[in-house]
Amino acid sequence: MGIAGGAFQLRTHSAIHRDYLRRQCADAFNDAARSATGHLLSVRFLGPEDEVMRPQGRRPVVVEELPSAVTAPTPAAGVAVAAPKTQVEAPARQPMPDITQVEPKFPIGEPRVRAEPLSPAHVRAVDPSRNGDGDGRPIYVTRPEQPRRYESLVVNPDYCFENFVVGPGNRMAHAAALAIAANPGRAYNPFFVHGGVGLGKTHLLQAVCVRICEQNPKTALYYTSCEGFVTQFFESVQNGEMSEFRHRFRDVDVLVIDDIHFLAKRDSSQEEFFHTFNALFQAQKQIILSCDAPPEDIPDLEERLVSRFKWGLVTKVDQPTYETRIAILKTKAKVRGLLMPDDVACFIAEKIDTNIRELEGAVIKLHIQSTVEQRPIDMELAKEALGDSLPVPKGEPTLQAIIASVTEFYGVRLTELQSKGRQRSIALPRQVCMYLARRCTRHSLEEIGGFFGGRDHTTVMHAVETVEDKRKEDSEFDLLLRSLEEKLRAARAA
């Protein structure tokens, strides 16, 4: 969008993207702009409705007092020095060059005021783009911006519904979140989602924030952690700012608080949150909470808060199934611009069954290894990069160990076991694999079926029953199964 006031302006899709880039990516963009142009530029991110600064003609400049930390420019002989907040005529200078015409080298010398422009909003001038010192080099007369206290937590635009993988363990929570985003304050209020660490609760909360802000950018939404609520409460009490605190949390359309279990054992904070909850609920404003446990299991939480948390919808997010973990890995890789082969995704999904954060960590490590070694992502690279770090449940064989043992005995391949073929030479080894996986591992029926060509849990149940019946009828087959199982457990124990 061009350069004005010493800043290169970029328009973003939404206010969410603008705020995320401003707070998380500003330094990287500033460095890139200066490296590409050779000039001391900053990058200014604009939302869809933000006004663009445009260069104008010669205009008087209102110069504000320089902060004590910044050295004022030394005037040349015969040049009058502008008094603070006094209008002076800006000397003529060459206009700011277009970015496409900038030579990739730094100009000789430095700006007369050794202060980088924070953003055009911080330059106190009637027409900041015409600042100059007469020799074509800009003067950046800036004052440090006072940081906004108690800002909402950053919402990551990547944590949207489009990147949320739906599975059996989170289907209800996802459906409820979609309904809330479409009609905040009317459907499922309050919305209380709980589950273990790293199972997607924060992603779901931020997806609601992203969707609401996309549909209505003027929505007053405040997203914070429970720790942030408690900290702000105590600081406001100490500083006599309770009026501002209540305005911040009660004069909103949507209040989103992560990890609400931190309210435990904090009597005064619980009292304040109780009144905040009542004020928002009575005004039909949306309340969204996340927690590691259901309301009744939060220790030392007042009964009146427990009952209010149950007024709306309480839903749980469970651990992702095997199929869901594969889909999550592929989605995380896609967000990073990576192509993850099916066998690599299956390998990682089998090894990591704890939470989504570990899955994402595996994708990041694989990405770094691939970039450093200039190699495509394949099974060999995955084993080199992740083999030593992938957790394996103690005392039980892995699915891959079971498959390797069975395929070696029956002389079949994994691709045949995962195919739709029903020949007895393939069906029996597949059923044996499913049976041993069910007996020797903690994988669910859905996870086992998903590994063998996406079959459902009824197919696994049928395979288990078939093998058990055959063991009763065929002593030689029963002996074979005993041998395979003992061999697998012995290898794992070793």
Short précis:
The chain has helices at 15-24, 26-37, 171-182, 201-215, 226-239, 242-250, 267-282, 303-309, 322-335, 342-351, 356-373, 379-386, 399-410, 414-417, 424-440, 445-451, 457-473, 475-493; strands at residues 3-4, 7-11, 42-46, 60-62, 87-89, 191-195, 221-225, 254-258, 286-291, 313-317.
The tally of strands reads 10
User: Tell me, what's the shape?
Assistant: globular
Mean pLDDT across all amino acids:
77
Q: Please work out how many helical segments DSSP would assign.
A: 18
Q: Kindly provide the name of the CATH class of the largest domain.
A: Alpha Beta
DSSP strand content: 5-15%
Instruction: Report strand order across the widest sheet.
Output: 7-8-9-6-10
Whole-number count of domains: 4
- This entry's quaternary arrangement is single chain
Helicity level, as a percent range? 40-55%
The CATH topology name of the largest domain reads Rossmann fold
How far do the termini sit from each other?
A: 64 Å
CATH superfamily of the largest domain: P-loop containing nucleotide triphosphate hydrolases
Low-confidence stretches: 58-88, 96-147
Major beta-sheet overview: 5 strands, parallel
